[in-house]
Amino acid sequence: DSDADPAVRRLDDWDAAELRSLADEYDTPAYVIDLDRIRQNYRRIAAAFDAAFDDPTVMFAVKAHSGRAVMEALLDEGAPMECAAAGEVFRALRAGADPDEIQYTGVNPPDDDLDYVVGVWEDAPEMTLNVGAEDSVERLAERGFDGRLCLRVNPGIAAGHHEKVKTGAHPKFGIPYDAVPDVVERVRAEYEMDVVGLHAHAGSGMLDEDMDAHAEYVGKMGDLAREVGDLDFLDIGGGFGVPYRDDEDPLDIDAVAERTREALGELDATLKLEPGRYLLADAGCLLATVNTIKDTPETTVVGIDASMTTLIRPAMYGAYHGIRNLTNPDAPVEPLTVGGPVCESSDTFCRDRPLPRPERGDTVAIGHTGAYGYAMASQFHSQPRPVEIALEGGEARVARRRETFDDLVRLEE
Ligand code: LLP
Q: In which residues is pyridoxal 5'-phosphate bound (predicted)?
């Protein structure tokens, strides 16, 4: 039912009265995460790839949001957890994942991470470990690993919303494309492990304009998988984007799945993918309160109680996030510069953006914070991390409590 599952959800689609009452009840800054929307997003992308492929696996890239409530909802939908660090494996297990539902992808994995994941694998022989360097295979063997191995490939093709999130051509990630057949041959000859899959990830935040690069990338990975042969799966990573701006269009995910199939060609292995942003971005928003308004000769500065420590994406990637005044939506529009309480100029959510001029005490919502929002929050500037409120079945509950000043000093000896 397309009405029940709009393929795009804009910041304006959130219920203002409901968000205002959440801000009143739980105080701000507050992350809101809508678990029902996450489930819708999962079902939509899973259905699209199910229609195009035989038995594909749509995992969840845990790095986008490693909170328990989110993982529980996605595990309930049947999504395996794609974990990029031992800590993510730990959290996925704690959220109820069966180790067999976990795929570990280590990038330059530290010894302690390998010790931990091999320890988990010892009791769960179906767990797949994925590494992107020949010496990491060696390091797994030293730990007695002889299970299901996936090799990460550097496909030499990248895409995404910003240079900093394009991984497909960056040397840090994966075995260089042309070297992969020889590496697979050596691993098969010299180690007990089963090379069951190849993996790559082009980058994050792809929209329509990236789909040619996506098709080229998928085609290249298909060619490599056919050359290597005898694989259970090909994992093409994540990266599917969501429009953060009102004038951007959503991906037609059915068409994307179909194009992926055409680009891939015939393959005697199943397809895996591991979206993060696509599942979560539009399922979250961040509530904040206007603390101060200052007219300057250049602009009007609006100070809110969320900052770059709450949501770092604007500071880090210049990322656009919509801002909506929930209290005074019809106030006269002026160019506003919205920032937080942190002493650096990167702590700015927008510069001279036409928005309704708020009053002190107004509640604002910042859009598309479900992915890489709370997950990248920090305590810099001694800002306790905010509360996170989960919405599910028409009910709101605290998924993570707000940190206190005591939490800031808790680990100090
Ligand atoms: N798989 C691998 C191996 C990845 O490295 C990533 C993301 C994903 C899957 C999920 O990508 P997604 O479907 O979410 O695009 N902090 C940045 C995004 C970094 C993404 C890193 N890798 C941001 O806020 O834009």
A: 239, 274-277, 372
